[in-house]
Design brief:
Elements (H helix, E strand, L loop, with lengths): L1 E4 L2 E2 L4 E6 L2 E6 L6 E10 L2 E11 L11 H5 L9 H20 L5 E2 L14 E9 L2 E7 L6 E3 L8 H12 L7 E9 L3 E8 L8 H10 L3 E8 L2 E7 L2 E6 L2 E6 L8 H15 L6 E5 L7 H5 L4 E6 L2 H13 L5 E5 L2 H10 L6 E4 L8 H9 L4 E6 L2 H13 L2 E9 L9 E8 L5
Helix pairs in contact: 2-10, 8-9
């Protein structure tokens, strides 16, 4: 074992320390702390070390608001005070942009804290493994395939914890499972997705009824066998309201897990958009219309592109249900959808890019800049791919003007942000 001092934290939530000519990555340690660690593995120049003891704790270290792995798994930062989490996230975001993309925004807006720091998660995917024929339901311990059973997870909506307890109570009646997804609405409605390890499982009608007796808020159960949807019992969607817009999310379609913070993010995006009312907007990876619909209320026209058929169907229903007629949704790969719009000589004054964690591709970014919009708003949950993509966008004639960090995931190292890229003034 060795003693080291933590220099800083990097994206991924680990602290960095130096020992001789080694750079150590250590989970659970904070900047400035002197710690005792044990080197565990070296792989591709990365040295992982296990925290054994904190010798000189940081003033930002606190007693976690959860007890043990059963409650804390899924929350790698419960030992850090919330103000310190916000400060660290903003610092990590800026350093990542600078290191990977050599990018510095003109203005960094103050990070937006989450209205809720506990019990905010509305969507959860539980892994299922069996021990002596008993299903264990929970999350894998970081960096392993060791499953930790979740009980009263402190980041999970109370109804999700209640639903998981109810599922455990009837574990003996369940078919062999691979995963369980539980989605909750802020108004208290639950749908469950069971992924069954069988090609032809029995009906889950009795299980649905048994679960509803324990958790009346369960609105529906959907089962999947192999790669196919097998059975739908009750409702297969939940409703979510944001400002004056109501959304439908069917089965496993994506929506933000921290819904109250999603309101702040949407409001920030609208502020950064600075719309006058005559704009045409492209919303890429639009999902069920989270940004498209509020943007359409302030613009002349919005075109949303999304590859998921079910999400696009939700988006169309959401536009119709809210009486929003100046929005069009295209079900296609974003790269192909952009090519089609360019060939049709569509214009775009603003492009909203909200890609998955892996970011966009070079071809997508080339096609975005080919529209020559006056502004691009890049929404990201991964600073590393964001830095890579913004560097490419800047080469297309744009500059990072304002950066808005948002804490969508308290007690984790994940960082949400919106980058405002504006077109460089043309040379005279």
């Amino acid at each position: 074992m060795i003693e080291v001092t933590i220099e800083k934290m990097v994206y991924g939530g680990k602290g960095i320390a130096r020992y001789n000519d080694l750079t150590l990555f250590i989970s659970g340690a904070l900047p400035s702390e002197k710690v005792q660690v044990e080197i565990k593995k070296k792989k591709r120049g990365i040295v992982e070390a296990e925290l054994i003891k904190v010798i000189n704790p940081s003033p930002d270290r606190v007693t976690p608001p959860c007890n043990g792995e059963e409650e804390c798994t899924g929350a790698p930062w419960p030992h850090i005070s919330y103000p310190a989490q916000l400060k660290l996230k903003q610092e990590i975001l800026l350093e990542t942009l600078k290191k990977i993309g050599r990018i510095e925004p003109r203005e960094v807006l103050p990070i937006i804290p989450s209205p809720d720091t506990e019990r905010y998660r509305l969507r959860v995917q539980f892994n299922v493994r069996y021990q002596d024929s008993r299903p264990m339901m929970g999350f894998f311990r970081e960096g392993t395939h060791h499953l930790v059973e979740i009980k009263n997870g402190f980041l999970l909506h109370p109804l999700i914890n209640k639903t998981l307890d109810a599922i455990r109570n009837i574990a003996g009646q369940l078919p062999p499972l691979k995963e369980i997804h539980v989605n909750a609405s802020p108004d208290g409605e639950i749908i469950i997705l069971f992924f069954i390890n069988s090609e032809a499982p029995p009906s889950l009608a009795n299980i649905f009824e048994a679960l509803k007796k324990e958790v009346n808020e369960i609105a529906g159960v959907i089962s999947y066998a192999g790669r196919k949807k097998w059975e739908v019992l009750g409702e297969n969607y939940i409703k979510l309201r944001l400002n004056d817009i109501t959304y439908q999310s069917t089965e496993g379609n994506f929506f933000q897990v921290n819904w109250r913070q999603n309101k702040n993010m949407t409001d920030s995006l609208l502020d950064l958009a600075g719309l006058k009312g005559d704009e045409t907007i492209l919303d890429l990876y639009c999902g069920l219309g989270n940004f498209s619909l509020p943007l359409a209320k302030r613009a002349e026209r919005v075109i949303g592109i999304e590859s998921g058929y079910s999400a696009i169907e939700d988006a169309k229903k959401n536009a119709e249900a809210n009486g929003i007629q100046n929005v069009e949704f295209i079900c296609d790969d974003v790269r192909k959808g952009l090519k089609m719009l360019l060939e049709k000589k569509e214009k775009a004054d603003l492009i909203v890019l909200d890609p998955p964690r892996a970011g966009a591709t070079k071809k997508i970014i080339e096609r975005i800049t080919a529209f020559s919009p006056s502004k691009i708003l890049y929404v990201s949950c991964n600073p590393t791919t964001m830095a890579r993509d913004i560097e490419m966008i800047q080469r297309g004639g744009y500059i990072l003007n304002r950066l808005q960090p948002i804490d969508m995931f308290p007690h984790t190292y994940h960082i949400e942000s919106i980058a405002e890229l504006i077109k460089c003034a043309e040379s005279p």
